[in-house]
Design a protein that fits this description.
The chain is mostly helical. Among the domains are: 58 residues; 35 residues, no CATH class. The protein is built from 5 helices and 2 strands, in the order E-E-H-H-H-H-H. A hairpin with a 2-residue loop joins strand 1 and strand 2. The longest helix has 14 residues.
């Protein structure tokens, strides 16, 4: 049992969280599922299938489930580092609107004016890309 004490506007209260223990039938079901997989040679699709099967069986993630998986040699999938990869189009280049490409060319050339910036903002709003707020820092 894990207890937490919080304060909201000076009022203190206690929340209690209980760790649900697996029933004997759930443990047996978990062991049967794990017996189908080899933890030493798990491919990514097999790992996904294992966790999908656990989810569909109704076995909820818990400390006990994690301990059983660990002791059976199953390690959790590594969390990806950094931002998700950007999917590229078929020609390996991202497609950007012409008005944005034109603005970026002017920006690279150092010829962007306030009128260009205002036009860009208007075009982005018209395309639903932004609704309000700061878009570009115009400081040089």
């Amino acid at each position: 049992m894990v207890s937490g004490i919080s304060s909201t506007s000076g009022i203190q209260y206690q929340q209690t969280f209980t760790e649900k223990k697996l029933m004997a039938e759930e443990k047996k079901q978990l062991e049967e599922i794990l017996a189908k997989y080899d933890p030493e040679s798990m491919a990514e699709d097999e790992t996904k299938a294992l966790f999908d099967e656990l989810k569909s069986s109704g076995i909820r993630p818990s400390k006990e489930v994690r301990e059983i998986l660990d002791s059976a040699g199953f390690k959790p999938p590594e969390k990806p580092q950094g931002p998700p990869p950007v999917e590229m189009g078929t020609n390996s280049e991202m497609s950007i609107p012409d008005f944005l490409a034109e603005f970026l060319e002017k920006q690279e050339a150092g010829t962007v004016t306030d009128q260009d910036l205002n036009l860009l903002i208007q075009q982005l709003q018209n395309n639903g890309a932004i609704s309000q707020g700061v878009l570009v820092d115009k400081k040089v």
